[in-house]
Amino acid sequence: MATTEERPLFSFGIIADVQYGDLDDAMNFTQTKKRYYRNALYLLREAVQHWKEENRIQFVLQLGDIIDGFNTRRKNSENALQAVLKEFQGVPFGLHHIWGNHEFYNFSRSYLMKSPLFTGPESQDIASNLKEVVKKEADAVYYDFSPYNGYRFVILDNYDISMCGIGRDKDSPQYKKAGEILRQMNKNEELNSPDGLFGVDRRFVLFNGGMGEEQLQWLRETLEVARQRGEKVVISGHVPVHPNSCYVMCLLWNYQDVLNILQDFSDVVLAYFSGHDHGGGYHFDSGNEIHHVTLPGVIEVPPGSNAFGTVDVFSDRLVMHGVGQLESRVMK
Ligand SMILES: Nc1ncnc2c1ncn2[C@@H]1O[C@H](COP(=O)(O)OP(=O)(O)O)[C@@H](O)[C@H]1O
């Protein structure tokens, strides 16, 4: 029989960039990787089946871009969303859906707030309270929860300051702020192009975003409370925040602000999980003992493989069991 040392305190599932669409396979923008839009749904199904059979995860962190932006061309966004949500129907674990750039190519924030992709703590109230939805519409969607005594999970809204798709209203201060940042840093007419930008500056493209001061302050306060309670914290967002954990073009615009906060609270922060960069990545910030995990994107996994995992949480380590392209690792 397993001793308490051998058994995880609790476990959770991770998956990123499913980007499902009823679309033919096609190459990415740079013509370097194929995207398997229809197969992505089967890979999601396989992941859910795997978690059901394992029978030990408490919740899944779905790290964003669950359907592809190209669904809008066929006016098929809602059908695509229904298809992926159907895979989660009746699952015996919780779900935390993070919003990425592709959510905003398909849907406005107010639509998302009322959809099952909103998994914030007030999701129950909001579905039945339209006034609350209107009030919340302008807000960023970030929240925290404690799945187990002594542990806290933080969900960030990396597209708080953004011009992606129809997410933010064009008149909103967040959209205007995003425009100021982008146009100052990126002189291309096509704002998704990083031409003329070098190194980490290549992150100043339209498909990325940033976090506002209010959210950064909330993150500091949340980590301060966690510190006082003696909790350990796992943070997640769609977009990576460490330049060594991803291709730099995929970094959060103000990644340094977030890194500074994580480093200030390195005594409580264990890891940062993200998606967005389909190639995936990993970096151990050894000075601060924080693990940065960027999951490979399901959309670019050929049939026959997959990219998801189960993380077992022990008192002294996180053990990530990767399936397919997600590498397994022990994170002390
Ligand atoms: N180097 C680039 N120059 C111009 N546009 C680009 C470039 N790379 C990507 N894009 C555009 O940016 C958008 C997002 O790129 P994409 O690779 O599809 O993102 P994701 O990885 O999130 O699916 C697409 O509209 C794509 O055409």
UniProtKB/TrEMBL annotation:
Task: Mention one GO molecular function.
Answer: ADP-ribose diphosphatase activity
Q: Which reaction does it catalyse?
A: ADP-D-ribose + H2O = D-ribose 5-phosphate + AMP + 2 H(+); CDP-glycerol + H2O = sn-glycerol 3-phosphate + CMP + 2 H(+); CDP-choline + H2O = phosphocholine + CMP + 2 H(+)
Pfam families recorded: Metallophos
Protein's UniProt keywords contain Hydrolase: yes
Q: Which UniProt keywords apply?
A: Hydrolase, Metal-binding, Zinc
Cross-referenced InterPro entries? Calcineurin-like_PHP, Metallo-depent_PP-like, MPP_ADPRM
Say yes or no: keyword Cell wall biogenesis/degradation present: no
**What sequence ranges are listed for the domain Calcineurin-like phosphoesterase?**
12-279
Write down the superkingdom of origin: Eukaryota
Enzyme Commission number(s) of this protein: 3.6.1.13, 3.6.1.16, 3.6.1.53
Which cofactors?
Answer: Mg(2+)
Stated family: Belongs to the ADPRibase-Mn family.
Its quaternary organisation is:
Monomer.
**What is the protein's given name?**
Manganese-dependent ADP-ribose/CDP-alcohol diphosphatase
User: What gene is behind this protein?
Assistant: LOC118429669
